[in-house]
């Protein structure tokens, strides 16, 4: 089973790239973030024509998450986190697909630091950790996939330049501490487990020639419960997708699970 996460950065603007990627890479499950469209305007017809069923939690112009399943209809479990600190933001959707529970996550960016947006980021992360604990206790295979907006470490394995990102919410001690809390609670960082050394970037900014300079960082993560981690067979990043015309600034990031 191949499960991917892809911050599409506007599903209408990137729809040709999304359909192209689905046809070429054929993930069994695709978790999308920043679809930036309302529930009513989600392009379900085009996605179904590509062979995928879908559920989504939209928001006009901002945020928005979705889960696609190849040749199947995802079974929706919930939209939004329990006790979400701001339920007007569409940042979480959860489904069952092929016996695996999958959550699509768009964690708040948090910039600027030391303000309400950063406080909201940390509060939202706290709610996610709480919900993850309930999912972990179920002992079911669970994959929490998405744009976490956290660079886990200062190493060049995770960020092209810690100095350049030093004032960003993605690198703050509080952000990294929350990510470590999730790991310490028993969740496996799938990509880093398969690729323990070397740069594995998932995002390259549109500015300052970041893509051309490979000035990227790793913020798209697939976190696995023990029952899912036991089945982990592979992981990677479809980096070439980032270099296409009118591409998202994120590249699809994926895992494979054994039956």
TrEMBL record:
Required cofactor(s): Mg(2+); Mn(2+)
InterPro entries: AP_endonuc_1, Endo/exonu/phosph_ase_sf, Endo/exonuclease/phosphatase, ExoIII-like
Site for Transition state stabilizer, residues: 149
CC cofactor note: Probably binds two magnesium or manganese ions per subunit.
Residue ranges of domain Endonuclease/exonuclease/phosphatase in the record: 4-250
UniProt entry keywords in alphabetical sequence: Hydrolase, Magnesium, Manganese, Metal-binding
Gene Ontology MF: a single term: metal ion binding
Positions annotated to bind Mg(2+): 7, 34, 147, 149, 249-250
Site residues, Interaction with DNA substrate: 250
Site (Important for catalytic activity): 220
GO terms classed as biological process: DNA repair
Active-site feature positions: 106, 147 (proton donor/acceptor), 250 (proton acceptor)
The family this protein is said to belong to: Belongs to the DNA repair enzymes AP/ExoA family.
The protein's name: Exodeoxyribonuclease III
Native species: Rhizorhabdus dicambivorans
Gene that encodes the chain: xth
């Amino acid at each position: 089973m191949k499960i991917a996460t892809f911050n599409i950065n506007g599903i209408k603007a990137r729809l040709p790239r999304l359909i192209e990627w689905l046809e070429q890479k054929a993930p069994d499950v695709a978790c999308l973030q920043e679809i930036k469209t309302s529930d009513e305007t989600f392009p379900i017809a085009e996605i179904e024509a590509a062979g995928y069923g879908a559920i989504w939690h939209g928001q006009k112009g901002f945020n928005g998450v979705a889960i696609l399943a190849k040749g199947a209809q995802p079974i929706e479990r919930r939209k939004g986190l329990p006790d979400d600190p701001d339920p007007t933001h569409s940042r979480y959707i959860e489904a069952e697909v092929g016996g695996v529970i999958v959550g699509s996550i768009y964690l708040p960016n948090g910039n600027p630091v030391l303000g309400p947006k950063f406080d909201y980021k940390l509060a939202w992360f706290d709610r996610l950790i709480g919900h993850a604990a309930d999912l972990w206790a179920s002992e079911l295979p669970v994959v929490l996939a998405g744009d976490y907006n956290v660079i886990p470490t200062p190493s060049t394995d995770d960020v092209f330049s810690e100095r350049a990102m030093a004032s960003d919410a993605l690198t703050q001690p509080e952000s990294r501490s929350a990510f470590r809390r999730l790991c310490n609670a028993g969740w496996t960082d799938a990509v880093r487990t398969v690729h323990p050394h070397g740069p594995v970037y998932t995002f390259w900014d549109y500015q300052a020639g970041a893509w051309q300079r490979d000035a990227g960082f790793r913020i798209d993560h697939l976190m696995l419960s023990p029952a899912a981690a036991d089945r982990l067979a592979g992981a990677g990043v479809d980096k070439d997708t980032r270099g296409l015309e009118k591409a998202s600034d994120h590249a699809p990031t994926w895992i494979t699970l054994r039956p």
